[in-house]
Amino acid sequence: MTKDQEAFFGMVLKVKNFNAKNATSMTAVPAVAGFYTQLNTLITQLITADVGSRADLTGFALSKSVKRTTLETLSLKISNAISSYALVNNDVVLQKRADFPTSKWYSCSEEELVTQANIIKNLATPIAAALAPFGAAATDVTAHGTALNAFTDAISDPTLAIDQRKEDNEKVVETIDQLRTLLNEKLDVLMRSFEVNNPSLFGLYRSARAIDSNGSVMAPTTIADVLANTTKTVHTATLYSPDTFYTVQNMGNEAVLFSLSAVVDTEGEEKVLLSPGETRSRLAENLSPTGVYLTVKNAAAIPVKIRVWVE
């Protein structure tokens, strides 16, 4: 999400928190409950889409490179073994088909590599048991087939991931639009039913609806320095409450992950990426069903300063 989208989302979470703490007071207008249920459903959808839209794709290139190297090495090993086997058995045709120069494996395009590796696979499979004396065991032939499949998949994986991330980005925008419509056209109208009969409740709702681009107008609950390559508990709650509202701001120059854990200085299962300069909010129930330790992981080589608001 962009900063504006994140600020809007922080407001939506405050509205959800308001409902959780004041649901009993709002039973005087029964229709309100159904719209808050819709709000909660859309929040879950938005969190899911946001996680997908922030998927880190850098690992795909590294993974593909490793898989290519594995395939190149096995292809060269097996093609050499087949050539030697063909030579000893006076099979000129087989020797010619399997004899790829070493440079051909390491300088070809991805498509050529797949084609050449398939040729070697098809040549090696029928004679796999006979290649051992020439430096390629039957297990190497099996491993080659596995490596070929893995590399073939790796070629398309980044494109598929990019397409999915694009779809998730579109879903973020779509869901925010649905949330904005729900708030502006439904909940805001219904909540005015309390303006005269319960002005205090209505005032709390209006406060929850206020968007703050910094995540919170209050002084931070805590400011913490998280050292390099460290996982640190930056806030400990007395008791777990699903309605606890956490806002975390990354004041450093490196991305961190925050989560809610049941174990001090240990990451929780649901981790939220926080880029440099970014502020993000989550209710406790959106982070973990248990846990009182708000934890930040800094995998970078330099310290990062964190500000936390707990409401």
Short key terms for the protein model shown above:
4-stranded antiparallel sheet; 55% helix; alpha+beta; Jelly Rolls; 9 helices; 311 residues
Descriptive account of the structure:
The chain is α+β, with helices and mostly antiparallel strands. It has two domains: 1-213, no CATH class; 215-311, Jelly Rolls (Sandwich). Helix content is 55%, strand content 14%. It contains nine helices and eight strands. The protein has helices spanning 3-22, 31-53, 58-88, 92-98, 102-107, 110-124, 138-191, 194-197, 199-208, and strands spanning 222-226, 230-236, 245-250, 256-261, 272-274, 279-283, 293-298, 304-310. The strands form two sheets. It has a four-stranded antiparallel β-sheet. The protein has a four-stranded antiparallel β-sheet with strand order 2-7-4-5, with no helix packed on it. Helix 1 runs antiparallel to helix 9 (199-208). The longest helix has 54 residues, at 138-191. The model has no long low-confidence stretch (mean pLDDT 85).
